[in-house]
Write a structure and sequence with these properties.
Layout (H helix, E strand, L loop, with lengths): L11 H31 L10 H11 L3 H12 L18 H11 L12 H18 L4 H10 L1 H13 L12 H20 L9
Helix pairs in contact: 2-5, 3-8, 4-5, 5-6, 6-7, 6-8
């Protein structure tokens, strides 16, 4: 938009001032356009993070799991930023040392040490093993397996028993823990997104 008046009675000084304002306006417009372009350029391609895809693919193949489910659990637990929780759970998949040692006994991992959970390969291997164990326990029911990953098998066993006594299967709204309901919903939603957006990286394409 020009700020130069169209009146022929303007002085040269006024015209120059108008041109100066026009120059500022054009510069501001260019800056805005450049900013929009830069924002579009640096905007993440996907809304969910993913790392260690090769490890996820390997463990999924070994354990007969959907790699998108492993990725979704990691996302729900740590968003792919390994850390230690206030409860002492460690690494990408937030595994408690006691759970890890139990899984080590089940899987024959006699040389396992708690410090190994800091290694993404070990952490994902153990978290995937636990997911496989839970899926077998709940006969392939991902909702129950994911709920147990968050709330523990004793709670999920009690909830499924209560639902069975009422003649039905446990559904998401039946889970009494709000945190676990939200967790299961987040994982299953993320699983679908990972399958859609990262099919190639997770070995699901083709």
């Amino acid at each position: 938009m020009s700020y130069v008046s169209r009146s022929r009675s303007l002085s040269v000084h006024s015209v120059r001032r108008g041109r100066l304002r026009l120059g500022f306006a054009l510069a501001a417009t260019v800056a805005v356009i450049a900013g929009v372009a830069l924002t579009a350029h640096v905007r993440p391609e996907h809304p969910l993070p993913l790392s260690d895809a090769a490890i996820i693919r390997t463990e999924a193949a070994k354990k007969g799991l959907d790699p998108a489910l492993i990725a979704a659990v990691i996302y729900a637990e740590t968003k792919f930023v390994p850390r230690e929780s206030s409860a002492g759970a460690k690494g990408l998949m937030q595994i408690l040392p006691s759970t890890a040692h139990y899984l080590a006994r089940l899987s024959g991992g006699v040389s396992f040490k708690t410090g190994d959970l800091a290694d993404p390969a070990v952490n994902i291997a153990y978290g995937s093993y636990y997911l496989r164990y839970l899926l077998e326990r709940y006969r392939g029911n991902e909702l129950l397996a994911v709920a147990a990953y968050n709330a523990g098998v004793s709670n999920v066993d009690a909830w499924t028993a209560s639902s069975a006594a009422q003649g039905r299967r446990l559904r998401l709204p039946d889970i009494p823990f709000a945190e676990t309901r939200a967790y299961v919903s987040r994982v299953l939603s993320a699983q679908a997104t990972y399958r859609r957006l990262y099919a190639q990286q997770l070995g699901l394409a083709g």
